[in-house]
Amino acid sequence: MSSNSEPSSDQQNNQDDNAPLWRFVTKEAKLGKGGGNITFQCNFCRQIYKGSYYRVKAHLLKIKGAGVASCTKVTNENLVEMRRVMEEAEQRVKQYNLKQVPLPTSSNAKFNFENSSSSASVSAIDPKRRKGSIGSIEKAFNMGAREIADSEIARMFYTGGLSFHFARNPYYARAFKTVSQLPGYVPPGYNALRTTLLQKEKSNIENLLEPIKKTWNEKGVSICSDGWSDAQRRPLINIMAVSESGPMFFKAINCEGETKDKHFIADLLINTIQEIGPQKVVQVITDNAAACKAAGHIVEAKFRHIFWTPCVVHTLNLALKNICAPSTHPRYDDVMEQCGWISRVSSDASFIKNFIMNHAMRLSMYNNHCKLKLLSVADTRFASTIVMLKRFKTIKRGLEQLVISEEWEMYKEDDVVKAKEVKDKILNEDFWMDVDYILSFTAPMYEMLRLADTDKPCLHNIYEWWDSMIEKVKEVIYKKEHKSFTENSRFFDIVNGILVERWTKSHTHLHSLAHSLNPRYYSQQWFDESHDRVPPHRDMDVVRERKKCFERYFSSEVERRRVNEENKLTPQRAEDLVYVHNNLRLLSRRSPNYNEGESKIL
Q: Is 264 exposed, middle or buried (0-12, 13-18, 19+ CB in 10 A)?
């Protein structure tokens, strides 16, 4: 592999063509740190001289007055050959310079396109300005060279198709700051970037992640898996390792040519568990697809202490889809009867969006009235219908101004019937009331989806979040229908049935265990938020599920009894706890915040 400091082939050839007669001498040694003077030996007469290329040329071509003797061994045939070499080199230099696009200048001066190059441009900021007329500020800050450097960097973006957002990358500015302190630095080449430097950075990242890995022995780790496709449409599966210390990308598997059935996915998860260490893994998290669910059961059968947990965000998204886009299958006729209007509102919004975005003139008129763009939300995005309707509500006034504008009325080159239909829908107040209602009763679901869609630990909150979310949905629906909680609401029954069904399919024993271990759900403040709340250890459903979880972790009754004894609150420990609790409160009385403010001790 060539060195990083070697010039490219085009640069090397250009340097040789600027001094083509070097090939007829042998370079011995360079004289001093700077300049072009070297010791060279003539390949014809074998004499040794000192000087630059100017003397090499004078010696070989027998040019007088150059301070060097003419070569006595060069024949006329040699002279003809060397002149031919020089002429060909000059032609190549001209062709090479034609390829160099001149950089822009602040003076807008016209360059000699044939003779300009990046190196010449530095001294050609203003050809009309005399050498001695450079201002003191410009000279002090080297503004000419700075302008050329900016142009070279900008050209790198333009020719390489780099996004302008790359300039916001913190490593972008840091790299140039470091390079500015290294005169003569040459950036790494193609091979170095994809081989040695890549492996060096990978080793560095592995060292930085080592503290996170060390916490897995004590805190445990969850393995998260998700499928996606890259720009070349290759199917990939990402494996992430998430713990209290933070998330870590573990690996990505190319599934091209593979059948992603339950056995294939299970093998990937099992191999990952073996790499990390089975005793460190608490759970594997996937989406709710049938193949992933079956793979999760295979993992649970092989490792009894590891749970398969469906992704909560994916579960909520499926629930929202069932509500906002119910199936037309006869089995779901009751759901369609109660939720079909939501699908119609969503379809109307999609119709309006597509009518505006699918024509340049209509889109131009829209941009004149609305600052925000119409979102083209992919179906694979979580809560896609809710995201689209939220944007519609935000741009409601702009849409109304659009369809009552003179531009909309005068533009007759398109489908007049559809344009009138769009106008009628946008000006229909019932449409906007339906949008508001959909957003209001789905707001608790969307809020929980956003809370759960994070890399922070939230397993201990899922059980309570789900209960609270259903209660909030009930409040909105009953308020809209002007009913008391003792009355029956057919619409809520359908929505509640969908949410409960999704919870039943995704709920695991771990949710109950994590819920019972959260101190918040034993506090008086939490009890006061709702009259029907009880601590987890008095909730029979939680107790029953938690017991099943313990049975998975500790298979024998003797082992479970031993664990209970170890964690039992002994009389001495209870006495110590009471001692600390009461004396802390007594000592805290000295603080002015004891009886006032949000931080007062209750």
A: middle
- DSSP per-residue string spanning 373-424: PPP---TTSTTHHHHHHHHHHHTHHHHHHHHTSHHHHH--SS-HHHHHHHHH
Three-class SS of residue 202? helix
Residue 209's closest CA among 240, 237, 238, 174? Answer: 240
Residue with tokens 């050959």: 81
Give the span between the Cα atoms of 46 and 38, in whole angstroms. 16
561 compared with 99, residue with greater pLDDT: 561
Structure tokens at 85: 């070499």
Residues 6+ positions from 48 with CB-CB distance below 8 Å: 28, 39, 40, 41, 42
Q: Which residues of 442-466 are buried (b: 16+ CB within 10 A; e: fewer)?
A: bbbbbebbebbbeeeeebbbbbbbb
Relative orientation angle of helices 312-324 and 333-357, to the nearest 10 degrees: 90
User: In whole angstroms, what is the distance from residue 319 CA to residue 503 CA?
Assistant: 9
Pick the closest to residue 288 from 312, 254, 270 (CA basis). 312
How far apart CA 468 and CA 474 sit, in angstroms, is 10
3-state secondary structure 234-300: CEEEEEEEEECCEEEEEEEEECCCCCCCHHHHHHHHHHHHHHHCHHHEEEEEECCCHHHHHHHHHHH
Cα gap 441→443, rounded to integer Å: 6
The structure tokens listed for 185 are 């630095």
Q: Which of 281, 277, 310, 316 is nearest to 294 (CA)?
A: 310
> 3-class SS at 506?
helix
Number of helices (H) and strands (E) in the chain: give both, helices first: 27, 8
* Strand pairing class (235-243; 221-229): antiparallel
pLDDT tens string 382-397: 788 899 999 999 999 9
Torsion angles phi and psi, residue 284, rounded to 5: -115, 135
Averaged pLDDT score across all residues of the chain: 83
Angle between helices 384-394 and 429-452 (to 10 degrees): 130
| Tens-digit pLDDT profile for residues 245-286 | 889 999 988 888 888 899 999 999 999 999 999 999 999 999
Q: Are 26 and 40 in contact (CB under 8 A)?
A: yes
342-381 per-position pLDDT tens digit: 999 999 999 999 998 888 888 889 999 998 888 766 655 6
How many other CB atoms sit within 10 Å of the CB of residue 148? 21
Provide the 10 A C-beta neighbour count for residue 342. Answer: 20
Convert the pLDDT of each residue in 175-194 to its tens digit: 999 988 888 888 998 899 88
Residue 494 CB: number of other CB atoms within 10 A? 20
From the number of C-beta atoms within 10 Å of its C-beta (0-12, 13-18, 19+), residue 156 rates as exposed
Residues ≥6 apart with Cβ < 8 Å to 387 = 375, 377, 381
Q: What share of the chain is helix, strand, coil (3-state, %, to 5)?
A: 60, 10, 30
Give per-residue pLDDT as tens, 435-454. 999 999 999 999 999 999 88
